[in-house]
UniProtKB/TrEMBL annotation:
Family membership: Belongs to the peptidase U4 family.
Protein name: Sporulation sigma-E factor-processing peptidase
Chief subcellular location: membrane
Protein's cellular compartments: Cell membrane
Entry's EC annotation: 3.4.23.-
Protein keywords: Aspartyl protease, Cell membrane, Hydrolase, Membrane, Protease, Sporulation, Transmembrane, Transmembrane helix
Superkingdom of source: Bacteria
Transmembrane residue ranges: 6-26, 38-56, 62-81, 93-113, 125-148
Amino acid sequence: MGSTYIVYADVLFITNFLLDYVILWATARFGHFGTSHLRIFFGALLGACYGVLMIYPELEFLYELTTKVLFSFLIVILVFPRLTIKKYLQATACFYGISFAMAGAVLGGSSFLSKSPDLFQFLNIKSTALIFGVAMAVILGRWGLIYLRRHWQKSQFKISVEVFIDKKSLTLEALIDTGNDLKDPLSRKPVIIVEYQAIKKMLPVDFQQCFERYGGDDVTKVLENCNNASWITQVRMVPFHSIGKHHGMLLGYKPDLVVLFGQEKIVTKDVMICLYHKPLSTSGAYRAVLNPEVFERAA
C-alpha cells in the first residue's frame, strides 16, 4: 500500500517565503545589486505564492521549465529595479547559482541527519536540514565576495571614480574593498577613503594648511584649531578600527558629487570622502578604497 503525504499549504507558503527571502537577500549582497528589504519582501512573497500553486494539479503547466525561467526573471525585475539587461542576466544567474548551492546544502544536511544510508532518503527532506541551506545562502551573501576578492585579480575590483568638490573635479582609480564598511556615524553614508595628496588641490587652501599641520598626528586637532573656517560644516570625524589601532579617526569631507564608472555609470551624493595621509597602494595602482555599499545607496 503506497504512502500518503499530506501537504499543508500554509507551511509550504511560509517555507517558500523564508527560503526565497534568504536567496534574494544573498543575491543582492553577493552581486551588489541595489534593492531594499521591502522589495526583497515582495519578491519572496511572489515566489511563495508561486510555490503554493504546485498543490493544484490543474496548474501543472506553470511548472514547466520555460515558465519557471520567465517567473524567475519577473522576480528579479521586481526586486532589482533599474538594471541594464546585462545586469539583469547577471542577477538571474546569481539567483540561480545561490538557489542551487542552497538546494545542495539542504540535501547534504538531510543526508547528514538521516539515520538510513539509503540514497533515496535524500528526498525526505527534514525541516532541520533547511538550516544547512539557509546557512549556505548567508555564507555566500556575507562572505562570497571576500572569497572572490582573495582569489581573483584585484584589477577586476577596480573602477574609476570622479569626485566633484567646489566646482572642481578629479578622476582617480579606486579599489572596491569588501573589508571597508566605514560609514559616517551621523549620516550613515558609506565612505570612500582617498589619499590626501591625490585630492589635495581640490580642497580649500586654508583646509590644506590645517590638515597638513595637524592631520598627520591627530585629525581631531583639525576641528579643534580650525572650527571657525568656512568649510567646517563639510567635515566629519569617522572612527575606524584596524590591526594595531582600535580607536583611530579619519577626517571626512563631504563632496558635492561622486561618479562611479563601473559596468554602468552611477552618480551619487550619498557618500563621504575620508582623507588618508599615506599612500594606499605601494605600486600606485589605486589611490582610493571604496565601500561597496556606495553602489547599493546609489542604485
